User: Fold this.
Amino acid sequence: NGFLNARKRVVVVENSYNENIVNVGDTIVADLVFGKDDVEEMIFQLVVDCGNLATLDNVVSVSSPLGRAVVNQPLGKEVSYMVDNTKFNVIIKSKLNLEEANAQSRK
Assistant:
């Protein structure tokens, strides 16, 4: 039976949200580190797929180099990613709650 065979392959994933880990849907405050004295703060929302949102500012897909670098990482960690043979370092500073994120988007 095809239905029973399909059911054998179903995997249940428990959703355990951790405030100290970067998750999809979070709005992240991070420092992009260009050099010792050259740091730029960035705020972005981590999404599954940008699709039509690709033209919006402050939206980063988990399939992008930055998104892959930060997803499931703890706050305070410095991570790196590559774009066109250039390495970028990012320090994950904090997550904004919904009210803070909405206030930032109005600025």
User: Anything to note?
Assistant: Residues 62 and 93 are 18 Å apart (CA to CA).
